[in-house]
Amino acid sequence: MLGKKLVTAQKRGETRALCLGLGMIACSMMMYFFIGITVVPFYTKSVWTTETVCKVLKANIKDKVFCPNSKGSEDEEIFPYPCLQVWVNLTASGQEVMLYQTEDTLERNPKCSYVPDKLENSKEVKARIETIASNFKKYQTFLCYYDPGGTQTNVILSRLYPAKGLLFAFLWPTLMFTGGCLIIVLVKISQYVSVLSAWQ
């Protein structure tokens, strides 16, 4: 009687472990799919792939400009902010080009090097842009990204989705997939050992 209860409990535990392993694999597949349709296209479409050294030539703050906070936003979401323009000397080609914060900055407003997020306090936006401008004037040389193909003559300070970020995004689903496979393998090994012991 006790032996039957132990066998039943063991089978239930194995079933739950198999469900856990399969669930982890299914979740990892969903995460792979989500990353594949969101992060990977932005990474592959970016043409600013080569890192080089940029030297600041000038960093000026122009008059306030109006820019929507996001694509397709309504009129009430359009807010004014000081336009920071940073021009750098590209070491790779020796050209004088304009610097943008990220790929998204160029799409949102090609006239400005930095586009702030919408803030209720305009003084905070102004202070932040002035701080960024002073930092550029203080640190004259830094690493930036340019387009080796020449389709884009400007440069960006940082990529939205760098290679390290892409690898980190795939790390968690890979660990979950590996863990799920390991659980299933261990359950199958346990079942095989149990059958072998019973046969002997």
Automatic annotation (TrEMBL):
Membrane topology, as annotated, equals:
Multi-pass membrane protein
Subcellular locations according to the entry: Membrane
Please provide the Gene Ontology terms (biological process) for this protein. Answer: detection of calcium ion
Where it mainly occurs, coarsely classed, is membrane
- Which GO MF terms are attached to this record? calcium-activated potassium channel activity; potassium channel regulator activity
- Reading the lineage from the top rank, the first entry is Eukaryota
Q: Which PROSITE patterns does this UniProt record tie to the protein? A: PROKAR_LIPOPROTEIN
Give the UniProt keywords, A-Z.
Glycoprotein, Ion channel, Ion transport, Membrane, Transmembrane, Transmembrane helix, Transport
Any single Gene Ontology cellular-component annotation: voltage-gated potassium channel complex
Segments passing through the bilayer:
20-43, 166-187
Regarding protein family, the annotation reads: Belongs to the KCNMB (TC 8.A.14.1) family. KCNMB1 subfamily.
PANTHER family per UniProt: CALCIUM-ACTIVATED POTASSIUM CHANNEL SUBUNIT BETA (PTHR10258), CALCIUM-ACTIVATED POTASSIUM CHANNEL SUBUNIT BETA-1 (PTHR10258:SF1)
In its UniProt entry, what is this protein called? Answer: KCMB1 protein
Organism ancestry: Eukaryota, Metazoa, Chordata, Craniata, Vertebrata
